# Entry
Amino acid sequence: MCTGCGPAITARITLKALQKPTIIVNATGCLEVATTIYPDTAWKVPWVHTLFENASAVASGIEASLQKEGKADAVDIVAFGGDGGTFDIGIQALSGALERKHDFTYICYDNEAYMNTGIQRSGATPYGAATTTTPAGSKIPGKTDAKKDLIGICVAHGVEYAATASVAYWNDYITKVRRATAIKGPAVIHVLAPCPLGWRFETSETITLARLAVQTRYFPLYEVENGKYKLSMKIPKPVPFEEFLKPQGRFRHLFAPEFTKDLEELRRQVEHNWNRIAQLCGEAPMQIASSTSQPIA
Amino acid sequence: MSKTISQKIVGMNGDEAVAFAAKQARVDVVAAYPITPQTIIVERFSDYVANGEVDTRFVCVESEHSALSACVGSSLVGSRVFTATSSQGLALMHEVLYLASGLRTPIVMAVANRALSAPINIHNDHSDMMGSRDCGWIQIYAENAQEAYDWTIQAFRIAEDHKVSLPVTVNLDGFTISHAMEGVAVLEDDRVSAFLGKRNPIYKLDTTNPMTFGPLTLPDYYTEFKRQQVEAMKNAPPVIASVTEEFEEISGRQYSKLSAFDMEDVDAAVICMGSVAGTARTVAAKMRQKGKRVGVVKLWQYRPFPTKEVAQVLSKAKSVGVIDRAISFGAPYGALCSDIASTKVLTGIQTKIFNVICGLGGRDIKPSDIEGIFETALRQAGGAEIDDPVTFMGVRA
# Structure
């Protein structure tokens, strides 16, 4: 995989966190392509890749078989999908598997675009980000739609456990993987996994960016257990929002004077999302810090 | 029929017969989605599950794409797996069909054949399966509920044989077979269990012996993977032969690659697949009584295509009308007729052929239609020229 690859770090931490015998189902994407070029494989656990959109369905079948064999409790089934394979093309299969309550853990490694095919926008790409299908043109400043609320969608299915995580906070992530796999039934973890190539930042800065995403409140870390939201990190003194954006080429155009309102729109969306999550977690709403507006609290 | 073996006769339609066969096969997992005219299969199987008559995990998925995907997952764990679909459902499965064969998962799937949209039509033709003809599955066509039952049982043995390890579709004409009640001779449960045994997978997703399935394979190895599928297809006919032989011993019913009716001493013939074969035989028998030398060939095994056997039987006739129940748009012939034309080229048989495309979207193929095909074939056999090598029977001008 690429130097500084966030999804690679996600996979490594996940496998460290898992404790039981494990079967991995991998949707098509960078993680699958880069780890299994025949006749080599990077996987020391049973692993299967089939298609882009069906990881949850394949996991459903595996789980049904293990149930039949009476082995379901002894084995963890983990499905990996990127944001394209989860937010977009795989959302139906995921929805079905969650509704049917298969005992598996779905991990979405979110690098906020279709990176394997060359940085095209997905339902996880944030407002204003430049991708090859939402380029920063002279008229349109990157993506004009907001990021989907994946965890909200999953929670609406009544999943017992859902959480967000960041590769920068590996201990938090490991705890979440263990909680997710411990419960009976489906669980979902949405991990922010920066992509140096797609986000256009220095390969040495992956963890810094993943941390800044949390510290600026761009990507809130939280858990939802039986419908109850809980912030994993409260971020009382957020880092100014621009600190997360500035190292990334995909947001560079937002700092041009003609796109000031779009930068503000992204800030507004991030603030709205934080406050929505904070409210669900029983926290007071707060303003997202930027270099021009400081937080109230 | 080689011998008579006492069996219970049960009134079932084709779908029910298939569901009953899957029950007797003691499948571990069924993942399926409803679609007309297949739905009765999943409904009956759901009854078995709800009444505790089977020890099967039934995964009632949210689409056919997920149905077959779940089947692939289950099969890779080592389970015996069954599913069923029709028409748009098979089309939605299209990319998963190639996965099932490429990953060598011995899934058995019944396809209650139905036309494809647009315009939407729920009735029978073979457009669905022909649209996925090259998906790497063994493809069997049944003529009636009895055959659908018998082939479904045999399909598990064929699919799971280590020399084959390929998925199998058992095709039954939508409504004509799927919904038509017949007396079906059924085997005792124990006989089916003994005949099928337990599945013994060669490779599986196993936490004690980790393996990688479905890796990225680049130009340096991709062709070898595909070549192995070709070899598996080549291995299938002798396996099918021994399975049908053994099945005959327990059932008294004889199956093969194809069935020839009155094909000795013949001038003209019809070759077809599925339920129309019954009509064709009835018509042929009547025409024989009038001194017309006509016969019928029904193909059971469409993939792998039994080129040698087809050539052998068709070579006896001077002219053969080939019935296709699907269009291959822009192609010189319909799909079956293309295969017959290839057979002629490969084997050098001199039999003349013409193609009749009929029975689309459930349009009835009447005895008089079949008689018309025989008359054309007899004319061609007598040396007359055929105006059009491909005709659409009974279509409005």
Summary: Residues 12 and 181 of chain B are 5 Å apart (CA to CA). The radius of gyration of chain B is 21 Å. The longest strand of chain B covers residues 108-113. The interface with chain A takes residues 28-29, 31, 55-57, 59-63, 65-67, 69-79, 81, 95-96, 99, 103, 205-218, 221 of chain B (CB under 8 Å).
